[in-house]
Every structure is written in C-alpha cells, then in structure tokens.
UniProtKB/TrEMBL annotation:
Compositional bias (Acidic residues): 230-251
Ranges of compositional bias, category Basic and acidic residues: 756-780
UniProt lineage: Eukaryota, Fungi, Dikarya, Ascomycota, Pezizomycotina
Name of the featured protein: Uncharacterized protein
Domain of life: Eukaryota
Region spans: Disordered: 229-251, 744-787
Amino acid sequence: MTTDMLSPEELMVSLPSLQPRERLDLILELLSAADKRSEQLDHLTSVAWAYLTENQLWQAHSLTQEQVKERVDWPAVSERIARFEETKSRKEHELRGIEKAWGCRPEEALGNEMWPVEPGTHLLRQLHRLSKICGLPEARNRLADATQQRMAARKRTATGKLTRWASDLHVLTVDVVTTIEQLKAQAAPDLGRRTLEAGVPRGTREAKEAMAGESGEAMEVVEAGRATIQEEEEEEEEGGEDIENDELDEETVTEKVPALSSCPCSCSSTIIKDIQNMKGNTNNDRGLQLLAKALQLGLHNVCHNHLRTLAKMTVGLQNNMSSSKLRKRLQDAWRNKSHLDDLRRRKPYWFLKTRRPETDADRLVVYRYHPIPPKTFQFNEVKVFERFTGPGSWDGWQQNGTIIIPRLFGFLNRPDVNWKIDVEFDLYRYHHRSLPGRSRLGWLRNMFYSIIQQTVRQDPVWYAISAAARPDKNWRLISYPYITKDTDPGENTGFLHLDLNTTQYIKDGSGGNLLSSSIALDDEQADGCTVGVPGFHHHIHDWHKRLVERGEDTMGFTTNCSTVYRVQDRKDWGEPIPMPCPAFGLRLTRPEIIHGSTPYSYRRRRSLFAWYTGIDEAHINLDLKETLSWNDLAACHWDLEAPSREPSGQAPRYGLPGFRFPGSVIMGSSSVIGDALIGRRKWTDPQVIRELDILLGDDDTAAHIYVNRVRTKMIQRYKEAFEQLEITETEAFGENSYFRQKELGLSMESDSDSEDMGKSEEASKDTDKDTDKDTDKDTDKDTDEEI
C-alpha cells in the first residue's frame, strides 16, 4: 500500500496555482484516494486479526484474547473489521450489477491498463451507475478520454509529488463521475433536437406528449441516470437487487395475496389487516411470513405509512426514512432470513434495540473501553479451613459434619469488652416482651442488631471457615440477621431437628450448603448445650427412605426429629450426644446433621449466630428461594430492621418486630470484606477481591496479619458504637430507658422474667430418659426449633 501522498503543507502550496475547476478536481481525487486507503486499512486489519485468532498468537506472551483486545483498542479494531465485511459485501453487489449490465466484470471490460489493482467501493458504485446508462464500448472510450483529460490537466502543476500521484493511468472515481455528467448534459438537448426534427413546435402539448412518450436512447439515459443517482444516494450502503416474486419459496407464503383493494392508500386489505395483527410481534418466523407476502405483492405497492409499520413489525427495522431505503432494507432482511440475527449484529443501527442482540455500544453507553474481565476467584478450601481450625481438622469435618473450635473469638474475651456485651444482653432482656401465653424458651426475639452482633458478623475468620466448609465453595456470602440465645436456669430448651426441608433436599439438594454456626459467650456443660448426631450426613438418604416407608415424610422448612428419629434409627446411626462449646468458641455444623439442645437449662447460656448465606453471581438470590433476596437483606442491614423471613425461609412464628429497635446503633466498617458480609458492598467490588486474595490466598502469614489488623479495627469500631448506645437508648425511651432505670437503681426485671420460666430445677433434673421409645410424644410441641 503506497504512502506517496501529499502532505497538508504541499496541498496548500499547490492549490493556488491551479484553476478553480482544477482545484475541485484535485480535492475530489484526494478525498477519493483517502477513502480507498481507509478501505485498504480495514482490509489489512481484518486479515491481520483473522491470522492472529487462527494461530492464537497471544499465547506467545502468555496473554488472553481479551487482554490483546484491550491493548489494541478493540472497539476501533472491531469497527474496522465490521466495516471491511460490509465493504466487501457492497463491492460484490456493485460488481454483480456491472456484470449484469455489461456482460462481464469491470476488470475484463476495461483491461489491465485502465483497471486499478484495488478498486474502491465508491469507484465500483459509480461504474455501476454508468453501466445502467451507457453500453460497454462507449463507456470504455469515454472513460479513456476522461482519464487522459485528467492527466493532461495535472501536468501544469509544479509539485513533483502531486504530478506523480495525480497522473495515475488507471481510471479513478472522478473519471467515472465526469463521464456520467457528460452523458446527462448531452442527453436532454439531443432529445429536444429530435423532437423539433419531427415537426412538433417546442412548448406545445404535442411536444410534451412526444417527449413524454419518447422511447429513444436519449430519454432513457436522462431518466435512468437521474433515477439511479437518486436511488443510490438514498440507499447509502445497503445495495442489493430487488427480490422478484419467483424468488419466494411457495412454502413461505401460506395464502395467496389478494388483489389490491379500493382503500384510499391502495394497499391490499389483507396486508393492512395482517400488519394490524402484527402489533407487538417479536417472533421472527411470523414476521418473515408477512414480509414474504408483501414481497410477493411488491413493496412498491405498499404506501409509505404501511411500509413503515411493516418494516417495524415484521423484522424490527428502524423506520424513520424514505420508502426506497426501507424497501432496500426489507429486501436485505429477506435475503438474510436464515441468519437474521447475524444481520442484526452486523448492522445494529438498522434495527430497533428491542429486536437485535445487545452491542458493545449498548453495554458501554457513555464509557469508552471495556474493562479487563475479572479473573475467576478460586481458593484452596482445605488450606483455608485448617489455617484457622488447626492441622488435620479437615478430615474430622468431612467425617463428622460438625466441629467445635475453642477460643476462636478469644480476642473478644477481655474485660473492656466483656462488660459491654453483658450490658447489651441485659438491655435487650429489659426491653423484651414475651407474647401472651408463650414462654421465651431461651430466645431474645428483639435482639437482631446489638453492636456485638454487628461486630461478629463482620469477622473475617468466621467467614473464611464458613466459605471453606460449604460444599459448593461459594465465597459470596451475606449474614442473615437472626436473634440471640440467652437461657435462664430452669427454662425448657429441648428440641431435635434438621435445618432442612429433607424431602426437597433429597430431591434437588436445596439447603445443603446452608451451614449453621454459633459463638458461645458462656462456658457450656454437657447438661446444657447443643446436642447432635455426628456423621449423620452420610446416612440422611437412607433415613429418608425409612421416613417415606413409614409415612413420616414431611415438607416443612425444617424437619422435626424429636419423634421421627426413632429407636432403630438411633441404633443404626447414633444417639444425639452433647457437644458443649467453651466460651468464645465456635460451633459449625452441616445442615444434614440432626442437632438440637438439651431439654432444660441449668445456667445462663448465651449464643450469637451469623447464618452466612450464599449469594448467586448476580447478587439477587440466596441459598434458599423462600428467603429474602440479597437486595432485601442488604436493606435490612442498612436499616437495622428484622427480616420478614428466617434463614430457613419460613415466616417467624413467635412474633416479629414491626420496626427498628429505637435504641440500636449502626457500627462502622471494619473492612471491605466485612462490608460485603452485611450487604454494604458487593463481592464484585475490586477492593473486596483484593482482600479476598489475602484472606483466602495461599500465604498463611499474610492472612493472619490481615486478620489481626481487621480484628483490632473491629474492637475499635465496637467501642465507638457502644459510646453512642446509652445516648441513643436514653433519648429513645426517656424514663423507660434501661440506662435511666439502672441509674435510678430501679428494678431491671424484664417482662419475660415475670413469666413462667418453665419447670423448676428439680423437675428439670427429671430428664425424659424414655424420649422417643417408639412413642408419638412430641417433645417439640412447646419448644422453639432453633434453625
């Protein structure tokens, strides 16, 4: 590709020395050459990209195809490639038209001495126009004359480079346009002369009729030239020959097109009716069927208004343009009927946005570049799990499906934090109101967003262990707000269940990733703790078959096991055993593990729950479809409001606060991962991903340094928020404030403390040793199933 072109300075020096017409001709030549060079660059780009992709050259530098696109300004490159494909198609169209008119291709018609090596689109278009109004022999002679005249005119210029460039022996676009103009100028006078020779005076009706009825060559030249030029200008780049009726497959048209009706617009009544019935159509097959009927009738027989509607309803074309352009585009759509979406992808600006594939422009809108696609985040679950739970713990987790990790939250076990935790629990106990006729059953149902709860939900270690332990390894988690456990001596606390809809889990695995976990704030003993059946996740399928055989299969959000886990089941798969957790330790359990609580409480036992729930990639849905969405849950965290569904998906059965607890305080951010865990950020946030690379990465030292830094900030944020707690609660409740009552030395007994706390200590010691000996006694009847 030559670069022997004028510089801007040379052009400006040369132009004054030329005559006005010569200046115009020169600039037209230059613009034509520039267009040609642009086409050559598009061609070169297309060939280069095809070679690169076929041979995957990016591998030489350990790159991906997407990274290559970013380096080369892919939007611009893809535009050049697409433009080349369109140019190639247009050129073929023009060449077919020339061959149809002259009986041979233009390179054969003009010969090597006149035909350029790489003809541009504009040159081919003008030759196509010329071929419609002039035969080949005359056209060849006229083009040779126009070329010689151009060369002779350029020899007068003083610039050598200009002379070399402008004295191209090959035919140029300007030569063709000059020839067309000469033909147009000669045609009209010739027609007038021939009319006078026939003896018809000029200006008379007979002259006009003679001219109107003239079938000679001159009239054909004038009219064909005008029509062709106008049509070519209107259709821009579409091109394409008209589709004849016999091109339509008989199978495509399901009924014969009726004769034109006498409606004002002269359109077929059937076509009008069919167009009206197409309102709102998005079905390609249905649209193409009507288009086929219209093409068989002839698009020229459809008025402009109905043509616009036809274009929009059948194939989804933009329709704010002339009838000739609409006809061309409808014909092009028909030619591409077998791969219409490919046409929509190549020429998206032709089509309505709702009827074409999404483009880069649609996605980018006002942005200039596509970002580098984020890498797929992966981590070693075994390494992460044992990093925080100890060597060899992974095998025990896989075998038992439950684990207790002592002192995991030991960083909270310090005097300046412990008394604050005690105050928060006492405050919510003071404000708790039990529902009439129902015991509290060891739960604080008004305590969703105490500051200590907000703090531990953001803990990176609790999160890391939970993400590693999940069977699906989903690291996009959000804490599902839940109440706290705070039992009194003598309270009835017994239950036994599965955190699963067992039937649904067996069917499709629903709920199988939702782990249950809790932090103990007090040392638990074997007579007052969680109980469970270690390893039961290996047997749940066999047990469910028994339930079905016994007619005990249920479809609840959780599965009550107090009566259906029978004596034989226990012999085969194990008794529920106590699993006491020391203060500030963590208990983690798979959802397929039967677990519950000892029947009664003999001492105070407080627990906190995070309920880390999986989020889908779109940040819309959670592990269970019955629960709230990510957006809803994030709003709950922002507003400190209780969710209307529990982590299992069921609605709260023992009352739900209708508004935010007025004394609650929002704790500040401790880390970006902590923000993601409570819905303040999405897991797609680049800062979150960077911290994940540390916390869940392969470097143990870096991960522990990160954890220590975040936990130090957690303590700081906890203390800052606690300073606001007394002010906020006192302002919210005045004389009924917990802090005001405490300051006055008045009784701090809560509403729930005045209720019947259940059985006495002596009665409590009389544990139900005969539980589940094939009886139907429902020991869960008056207890709250901890989910």
